[in-house]
Amino acid sequence: DDVIEKTRAQIDKLKDLKTGMMQELLTQGIGHTEFKDSPVGRIPASWGLVTLEQLIGKLEGGVSVNGENRPKGPDEIGVLKVSSVLRGKFLPNEYKTVLSTDVDRARINPTIDRILFSRANTRDLVGESAYVDKTYEDLFLPDKIWMLDVRDRLQVNVRWLSYILCSGNIRRAISDAATGTSGSMKNISKSSLLAITVPLPTLDEQKNIAKTLEAVDNELTGSTARLHTYENLKKALMQDLLTGKVRVKLDSPEVAAA
Q1: Ramachandran region, residue 29 (left: φ > 0; alpha: ψ -120 to 50; beta: rest)
Q2: Model's pTM, two decimal places?
Q3: 108 with 135: CB under 8 angstroms?
Q4: pLDDT (tens digit, 9 = 90+) per residue, 98-143?
Q5: CA distances for 229 relative to 9, 126, 240, 243, angstroms
Q6: What domains are defined for the chain?
Q7: Coil, strand or helix: which one is 144?
Q8: CB-CB contact of 98 with 185 (8 Å)
Q9: In a 3-state reduction of DSSP, which class is residue 178?
Q10: I want to staple 121 with a disulfide (CB 3.0 to 4.6 A). Which of 30, 83, 114, 125 is the partner?
C-alpha cells in the first residue's frame, strides 16, 4: 500500500509539473527576454502569429461503421471510440470491433507522426487531441475523429503542434468555437478550427519545447505503468489470500523460538 500511495503521489506531481511546463514553454518559450502582447496573450517578441490553416495541410475524417464492444480477433479490425483521444493521449485499446458487414467501409488508419482530433464530443471534451507515435493498420477512424497533418515539416514540428492544441488558451478557443443545440454534444467545423490563431516559434525551438515536454510524458507513462503493476500484484495477492493459496504465518520468530 505504501508503494502504491507513493507512486500515485509521484504521478500527481508529474501531472502538475507538466501543466506548469506547458503553460510556460508554450507561451514564453526557452530563454527569451523580450516579449510582446498579442491576441493570444504575451509571447516572445521573436515569435510569429499564424492561423492553424497555415500550419495544417491535411485534415481527414473516418466514417461511421457498426461495431461491437468486444476485443477484436486476429483477422478483425477495430473502429476507434471518441474516448480513444483523451487528455492529450491516444488510447488505442478504446475501440469497437467492426462488424463483418461493415469492414469494407472502414477507412483511414491512425498514422505515425500525425495528430488525432475529436471534432464532436461534450463541451469539455470536444477538441481533445493526441499525437500518434506509430501506425495502427488494424484500427480505423470514426466520423467523429479527424487526423491532422502539417503542411511543411521544415516549418512545423508535429509533436509541438500536438502540445499547442492541448494548451489551455487553444483548448478554450476550440471550446468557444464549438457549436451544437444538444447540451451534451458539441461540434467544431473545419473552418472554425483552422481559423484559430496560435503563436509560432522557430522550428528548432518547437523541437526543443516538444522534447522537454515529451520527457515529462515518458516519466508519466512509466510511473502509470508501475502503478498498474503494483495494483494488479496487490489484487492477485489478496485473491490468493482469500482463496487460501497463500497462508499468512501468524507465529512470530520469538513465539517459534519459545
Answers
A1: left
A2: 0.86
A3: no
A4: 999 999 999 999 999 999 999 999 888 999 999 999 999 999 999 9
A5: 16, 32, 16, 21
A6: 1-31+202-258 (1.10.287.1120), 59-193 (3.90.220.20)
A7: coil
A8: no
A9: coil
A10: 125
